[in-house]
Write a structure and sequence with these properties.
- The chain starts with 13 loop residues before the first helix and ends with a helix.
- Helix 1 crosses helix 2 and helix 3 (67-79) packs parallel to helix 4.
- A 4-stranded parallel β-sheet has the order 1-4-3-2, sandwiched between helices.
- It has a single domain (28-140), classed as Rossmann fold (3-Layer(aba) Sandwich).
- It is of the alpha/beta class and 142 residues long.
- 43% of the residues lie in helices and 15% in strands.
- It contains 5 helices and 4 strands; from the N terminus they run αβαβαβαβα.
């Protein structure tokens, strides 16, 4: 009988996310969808299998919902960068006010400084994540 325990069952996008994180740093990985579909479990399975420092942070706590909190987590991840780089996972990011600007600023700075910090963003409300990106893209073109 096949077991569906988290230790043996791999989420459908496991191999896709794993291979993207093994590639050279180029893109922020966004895992978005409805609540309770296994986004966090997927990311945990992938990151647990990697030989890279992982910094995981969740914006579930109401007092942590701002861009400063994102910058603080990002700094922790920067200090964890090893020879193979590091990965920061920001869960429930759509709950943080100004998340898009903060992530973009930190990503651009790391790109400029050639830091090998890969980023995974999780959002439980796909519409909010997409809206945040599209609104900010319009603002950036002004």
């Amino acid at each position: 009988m096949m077991s569906n325990s988290p230790a043996t069952y791999k989420r459908p996008y496991y191999h896709t996310l794993h291979s993207r994180l093994e590639e050279p740093r180029r893109f922020i990985q966004v895992v978005a969808g409805p609540r309770q579909v296994g986004k966090t479990t997927l990311v945990q399975q992938v990151t647990d299998s990697m030989d890279t420092p992982i910094i995981y942070a969740s914006a579930d706590e109401p007092s942590l919902r701002n861009a400063e909190w994102i910058a603080q987590q990002w700094e922790k991840a920067r200090y964890s960068i090893a020879a193979r780089g590091a990965i920061i996972v920001l869960d429930e990011v759509q709950k943080s006010v100004g998340w898009f600007e903060a992530v973009k600023r930190m990503w651009d700075e790391d790109t400029y400084r050639n830091r090998n910090l890969k980023v995974i963003i999780l959002g439980s409300a796909q519409l909010l994540v997409q809206r945040g990106v599209s609104v900010n893209r319009r603002d950036a073109s002004r």
